[in-house]
Amino acid sequence: xxxxxxxxxxxxxxxxxxxxxxxxxxxxxxxxxxxxxxxxxxxxxxxxxxxxxxxxxxxxxxxxxxxxxxxxxxxxxxxxxxxxxxxxxxxxxxxxxxxxxxxxxxxxxxxxxxxxxxxxxxxxxxxxxxxxxxxxxxxxxxxxxxxxxxxxxxxxxxxxxxxxxxxxxxxxxxxxxxxxxxxxxxxxxxxxxxxxxxxxxxxxxxxxxxxxxxxxxxxxxxxxxxxxxxxxxxxxxxxxxxxxxxxxxxxxxxxxxxxxxxxxxxxxxxxxxxxxxxxxxxxxxxxxxxxxxxxxxxxxxxxxxxxxxxxxxxxxxxxxxxxxxxxxxxxxxxxxxxxxxxxxxxxxxxxxxxxxxxxxxxxxxxxxxxxxxxx
Length: 375
Prior knowledge:
two-stranded antiparallel sheet, Membrane-bound Lytic Murein Transglycosylase D, Chain A, mainly alpha, disordered C terminus, 3 domains, single chain, 15 helices, 47% helix, Lysozyme
């Protein structure tokens, strides 16, 4: 038994440090971080509340379920660090919307469990964005979702949609914990379980396993993010990703407009515009009214710069219209015009796996040097 314990201890040490630790590569000095023991981490003293509702820690089953989720989350320390750092970027905006609507601030922790605060998060079931809306639900709560725009990725639009959804759920269930459970499993399914089991307490209902864990994961996120030092996460304010800083502008688009032009008019880069506006799919804005974010301070003179740029592009960057002939292929056409094949696909919204046909018209822009942009 003693020998087995020794080998087991060595195995978990290697698992924790990684195999490179045996070869002299530098490893994190966990001892110097003075990490609290796992047992100390799960000793939670009541009272404890989530969404303003008390968690019945005197119930052994409730305490066990909470301890399990807390331990599992604490094991993935790099992920928790990213949660904390991203919270600096997104929580101020979530908190403002929640406060304006008299909603429990704790709902922001639900977004951590749903998406880890990543706008492009997508589940295997097709849920997308900060609040992991399915397309049908997102459309029901006035989110634009189409091949060009997906507002499930917009921190402001999706949070407002989540607020409206939670308002409806709370009217049905009269409990925020039950409302969060319904958010996870669907209100019809939860109503059925309440009816069959004749219990209307989340902590006493037998629910799908994912939903049984869900509220406890939210509680664990709240415990850690409100007391990070207690759990060994010693981050300074400067360690957090700063809150989004931006100017919000309205654009009346009359013809397809490249995000590259918008970025240059905002004295920034294409990537910055895409990162500030993850709801924009692809490389263009299309006809209609758009409200987008650009870097803070860039709105002054933006519209004038954009109009001038678009005017110049019509004279200096006239696209060549190529009519597909028999025997043509996309790679052949790209080679003839000396342009990258991916660029040809982007300009014409083409799928490489779908054929082109004689008579199709393709837009091809002349090769040009990348413009200088202010850093």
